[in-house]
Amino acid sequence: MKGVAAREPKAVTPVAVDRARTGKRDDVVGQAVLFTVVGVLATAANAVLYVLLREIFPVGASNFCSLLITTVASSVAHRHFAFAARDEHPVRMHLQTLAVFSFYCVSNNIALGLLGLAVEDPSSVAEAAAVAALSIIGGTTRFVVMRLWVFSRSAAHRASWE
């Protein structure tokens, strides 16, 4: 009995601390703020990486590589910070990351194409700025998808994936 009593507080304490720590992450405003911070950092990292890679590679390869790296990193960061208190299904998680990557590949190519129509020979900084501007739409869409689909609280919805 003495060993059992000594273990009980240790088993209860982390759960209470975890709930207090993630409580702000479970409301939509707290998630939106954390999501935005991660998104801004990821967009800045993508722009910097794109400009650096653009010195070595053509537009398409620079876009693809910078996007692949920052999408994977930001997906991990979003799951760790903004949606830490939420359940997720591995299939949904991977589908969402693939969908985000695909969306940004297409939208970035559209942004770069439109910039190429407006400016004859845009600089890599202008290209990065065009991609970053379009990422606001993508980020908003991504937040809604992650909140409603990937990290859904609905038990019926979760059960349908199991």
Write up what this structure looks like:
The protein has 162 residues and is mainly alpha-helical. The chain has 6 helices and no strands. Helix 2 (28-54) packs antiparallel against helix 3, helix 2 (28-54) runs antiparallel to helix 5 and helix 4 runs antiparallel to helix 5 (124-150).
Give the key terms.
162 residues; 0% strand; 83% helix; elongated; mainly alpha; single chain; 6 helices
SSE inventory with pairings:
Layout: H1 2-22, H2 28-54, H3 59-82, H4 90-118, H5 124-150, H6 155-161
Helix pairs in contact: 2-3, 2-5, 3-4, 4-5
Largest sheet: none
Could you name the ranges where pLDDT drops below 50 across 5 or more consecutive residues? 4-22
Q: Estimate the global geometry from the Cα principal axes.
A: elongated
Q: What value does the average pLDDT take?
A: 76
**What string gives the helices and strands in order?**
HHHHHH
**Structural class, from secondary structure content?**
mainly alpha
* Number of contiguous helices: 6
Radius of gyration: 20 Å
> How many DSSP-defined strands?
0
Through-space gap between termini: 38 Å
Task: Please state roughly what percent of the residues sit in beta strands, choosing from under 5%, 5-15%, 15-25%, 25-35%, 35-45% or over 45%.
Answer: under 5%
The helicity comes to: over 70%
